Amino acid sequence: MTVGFVSYGAYIPRYRIKIEDIASVWGDDVKSLIGGLRVYEKSVPDLDEDTVTMSVSATRSALNKTNIDPKRIGAIYVGSESHPYAVKPTSAIVAEALSVTPNLTAADLEFACKAGTAGIQMCMGLVESEMVDLGIAVGADVAQGAPNDILEYTAAAGGSAFIIGKEGRVDLVAIIEDTVSFTTDTPDFWRREGMDYPEHGGRFTGEPAYFKHVTGAAISLMKKMGTKPDDYDYAVFHQPNGKFPVRVAQILGFSQEQIEPGLVVTKLGNTYSASCLMGLSATLDIAKPGDRIFMTSFGSGAGSDAFSIKVTKHIENIRGVEPTVQELLNDPIYLNYAQYAKHKGKIRMK
Amino acid sequence: MRDVAIVGIGMTQFGELWDKSARNLLVEAGLGSVDDAGINGEDVDALYIGNMGGGRFSGQEHIGSLVADYAGLATNLHVPATRVEAACASGGLALRDGIMAVASGYCDVVISAGVEKMTDVGANTASDVLTAAADREWEGIVGATFPGIYAMIAKLHMHRYGTTSEQLAEVAVKNHLNGSMNPKAQYQNKITVENVLNSVMVADPLHIFDCSPLTDGAAAVILVPAEDAHKYTDTPIYIRGSGQASDTIALHDRNDITTLGATVVAGKRAFAQAKMTHSDIDMIEVHDCFTIAEICAIEDLGFFEKGSGGAAAQDGITAIGGKFPVNPSGGLKACGHPVGATGIKQAVEATIHLRGEAGKRQVDGAENAMIHNVGGSGGTAVVHILSRNR
Predict the structure, then answer these.
(1) Is A213 known to be catalytic?
(2) Do B119 and A32 touch (CB under 8 A)?
(3) Which of A74, A160, A179, B302 is buried most deeply by CB count within 10 Å?
């Protein structure tokens, strides 16, 4: 395969709420929550932030790191569970905000938390076949957590964007060596049209959903490529909490050291469609030329996309321009539950 | 009345079995028992199936017909099939009903089975389904759930008799140790007293590790007249005693909330029928839906003075190698508690030990076993005594 990443960007809102502040409202046991979730705080969007604004910010961040002509962008896909419109594409707004209209294709995607990686796969096909020159895949969400539901502790906000190009036409900071997917009809988590909050199957979201699909795709890819966990320097898995990715890494044979740089959920929460992409961004922030990264996303409903990625020497060229994921995680502004409820539109105003 | 023997046993894995439905589970256990006894469908005279919550867990009632159908016993053989329900004692009652059908001469080959599929609903729904074993109008509607009800039993037991949280925890520790030697158990991990005391409090003083889990599973036994038993097996296990009793459904109406009167009476009835006493019993499987329930059970069955059961697990008396081994299967806590199946699973476990086939968790030289199954907080109790000897 001769396609890969030209650049990448991330955006995390400044605001946070701590797990204990949510727990104090509902009378939940903080120790067992943190023990069970391994998440300490989560990001909260500002009053005027949403999937559109975060997609634009993340994509701008990616573009700012390079000097490519934005007019070369031939495709934009935004994956999210929280597109502001059911009908009116986020991707078209992003394209306009980047001034890359009108000569491009665009569409919005949904596959729970893996719509962003699905977008990468779509761009890979368009770019490899030279139907377009460059493609952008974004994963962004302002995740909905129902009050007093366990998901309220982890449903966070963030966005990450990846620019995909073809070797020979543009410098790639990382090559996508291969990708493989694993998809079934598994109803572990869903939201009907018109409903404010998703529902989920409790413990059914674990073994028959997350673990089955992540290991399914990961094992399939390593088998196809003849690789083993030892062949990789880093690994990134979908992070709905701080426990699942650690456990799936153990199951597959990856070490804690390999997943550590990409494990951003503990101070960020689950950014849903941005989850894996945020972990990949954090890993690319520190990876060296020649490093190999294994990534497997998971989207409820359900499916996983696995990728084998190799970092090139060009990665050094895009550093130092935009904040790293760690820098975005630093210096947060903490909210109490009342302010959080206001930010998330949970207070009935009339 | 004829003597009755168990000549075949079958049991599924107990656990969160995402890929199996209630009918899958019961057919698996049933076929296991049929194979074990070496019988055919044509030989079966009746089916008794214990199941508490098919309606709310799976939207399915009429379990008798469903199971007979999927076991291949309905279409042409038209075997009579009856669902038996007494909350968590459904399995024990299915066993007793099967025994009575054979003892009375009505039937010659009976399958007594139990099944529960609990993981197709969320935890809150499951908790409410189980609350139907209590008094809905006087306990459930005012907010009591089973951990809450047994917590009240525990509180008074601790206050009156000095039973401690550590003693409760030791019951769970022992049962997990036993479960670690049972390949069919839901939990095969060993735990410590610290693990139990540090686990989240569910209903003071009961931590999550003091509570039995939600489990999917099924078990089945084949019952025949004792005089025919050797046609099927070299190691028939005889039913020497059976006792069943009721008590008030609501905890607050009991004579003494730390004593399950139904257990006391059911135990006495079983001993009387068997013409045995406590010193004859080599192992006991009791209904440890919560750790306090095991302590009360061994007291109420008369193995320990009321109030002194707390020290039993702590002092190793109820360990597999101890004086009165209790719950070598891992009990409800570690083996798991698919509600309708537990009573039958206890019979399966006792049979395995009495046949000498329990491997690492074998109670050495076991000749006589007692099994004890309770519905709700003690509204029903059913006790059986099984033996190698007729």
Answers:
(1) no
(2) no
(3) A160
pLDDT recorded at residue A249: 98
Q: What whole-number distance in Å separates Cα of residue B193 and Cα of residue B179?
A: 16
Chain B residues touching A29 at Cβ < 8 A: 200-201
Residue A52 shares a structural domain with residue A140: yes
Q: How many domains does chain A have?
A: 2
Alpha carbons A30 and A25: distance in angstroms, whole number: 11
State the average pLDDT over residues A176-187. Answer: 98
Same domain flag for A50 and A148 = yes
Phi-psi group of B356: left, alpha or beta (phi > 0 → left; psi -120 to 50 → alpha; rest → beta):
left
Instruction: Decide if B211 is catalytic.
Output: no
Q: Tell me which of A149, A203, A207, A212 to substitute to probe the interface with B (most B C-beta atoms closer than 10 Å).
A: A203
- From the options 3.90.920.20, 3.20.20.10, 3.40.47.10, 3.30.43.10, give the CATH code of B4-121+214-231: 3.40.47.10
> What is the reported pLDDT for A144?
87
Contacts of A219 (CB under 8 A, 6+ apart): A252
Tell me, yes or no, whether A238 and A266 share the same domain.
Answer: yes
Per domain, the residue ranges of chain B are 4-121+214-231
- The pLDDT tens digits for A57-99 are 999 999 999 999 999 999 999 999 999 999 999 999 999 999 9
- Out of A113, A123, A200, A213, the active site residue is A113
- Whether the pLDDT of residue A1 is over 80: the answer is no
Q: What is the mean pLDDT of chain B?
A: 97
Q: What is the pTM of this model?
A: 0.91
Whether B122 and A201 lie within 8 Å, measured CB to CB: yes
Determine the Cα–Cα distance for residues A280 and A7; give it in Å rounded to an integer: 12
Looking at the structure, tell me whether residues A329 and A303 fall in a common domain: no
Same domain, yes or no: A23 and A156 = yes
Element (H, E) at B196: helix B193-198
Closest by Cβ to B18, choosing from A29, A32, A207: A207
